[in-house]
Amino acid sequence: MIKKLKSKIFALMMTSLSIIVLGIIILFAFLNCTNTINASKMSINRITRMRDHAGFQGERMNPEIEDFINEENEKVNKHIKIVIIFSSIVSGLSLLVIYSISKKTSEIIVKPVYETLEKQKQFISDASHELKTPLAVIQANTDVLENEIGNNKWLTYIQNETDSMDKLINELLLLAKIENADEVRNYEQINVSEEVQVVSAMFESMAYEKQVTIVTNIQDEVTINGSRQEIEHILSTLIDNAIKHCEPKKEVKVELAKEKNNIILQVKNVGEPIPENQRDKIFERFYRVDKSRNRSEKRYGLGLAIAKSTVQKYNGKIEVDCKDGVTSFKVVLPIG
């Protein structure tokens, strides 16, 4: 996000300043050449009028007038060439200066935003780690109490909420880990075809409960150099999301193919379409289209945000499209 913001600011400044500066240089060159041409015309007209007043001496003045006109034309052409060369040099130097100014200014503008985001990421990571210990203590104590006093609805409430909190903390830690650019990447060669098959099979029971059928179309031996955990998270997020939003007795289609130097993953479901004005927002942290349903299902709006961050980490892209009652999530991952 920071890189995109920086690029947009740089491009905007570079374009604006270039148009202004080059416009001034072109205007200067045009006016300069126009003044030179007009001055030359005035000199030629003055000599021509002198010839007309000379009367009988006109024949003798013609060669001199022609020489003068030729000399003026040469001066004008020479001056125009000098102006063009000078303008080109100034334009080139101006573009270099504009490039440096735009680059430096964009860095200065983006720096506070970058620092704020870094502090936010660090805070989320630190807070999540700090919450893990007391949460583990609460879970351990509720288990002990359950063993002593048996089933109790109040303990059940505590256990459900601590489980939800534990899930939220783990997702926050995963998001912080993915967005940590300084993290050492221990990548390996992964058979994505097998991962799609395994993850799809994991959701068969969930699909059965929702009266949904998972249909796969997987190209064999599609591989990528990456993290197995990250690839599995992308797959599980999209399949889980598709099943939960699919209409009963319909299909969730999971498709994997290799096209040129890209891996194409598509997960489709039949269901209520995502409003067009919210299709970009669903990839934001904590954003939920149906807040009431997601809250009841203990969904915090982090799954797609994590998936997008993971995809971008691989220099890929993720997008959503809704057409003819079918919602389709498409992930493109470059292999190289």
Map the helices and strands:
Elements: H1 2-54, H2 58-149, H3 153-178, E1 188-191, H4 192-202, H5 204-209, E2 213-218, E3 223-226, H6 228-244, E4 251-259, E5 262-270, H7 291-296, H8 303-313, E6 317-323, E7 326-334
Parallel strand pairs: 2-4
Antiparallel strand pairs: 1-3, 4-5, 5-7, 6-7
Helix pairs in contact: 1-2, 2-3, 3-8, 4-6, 6-8
Regarding CATH, which class of the largest domain? Mainly Alpha
Named CATH architecture of the largest domain: Orthogonal Bundle
Radius of gyration: 35 Å
Strand content: 5-15%
- Overall, the morphology is elongated
**What is the chains' assembly state?**
single chain
Give, in spatial order, the strands making up the sheet with the most strands: 2-4-5-7-6
- The string of secondary-structure elements, in order, is HHHEHHEEHEEHHEE
Q: State the secondary-structure class.
A: alpha+beta
| CATH level 3 topology of the largest domain | Helix Hairpins
Condensed summary:
The chain is an alpha+beta fold and 336 residues long.
Overview of this protein structure:
The protein has eight helices and seven strands, in the order H-H-H-E-H-H-E-E-H-E-E-H-H-E-E. Strand 6 and strand 7 form a beta hairpin. The longest helix is centred in the N-terminal third of the chain and has 92 residues, at 58-149. It has two domains: 1-183, Helix Hairpins (Orthogonal Bundle); 188-334, Histidine kinase-like ATPase, C-terminal domain (Heat Shock Protein 90), CATH 3.30.565.10. The protein has a five-stranded mixed beta sheet. The protein has a two-stranded antiparallel ribbon with strand order 1-3. With 336 residues, the protein is an alpha+beta fold. Mean pLDDT is 81; it is low at 56-60 and 292-296.
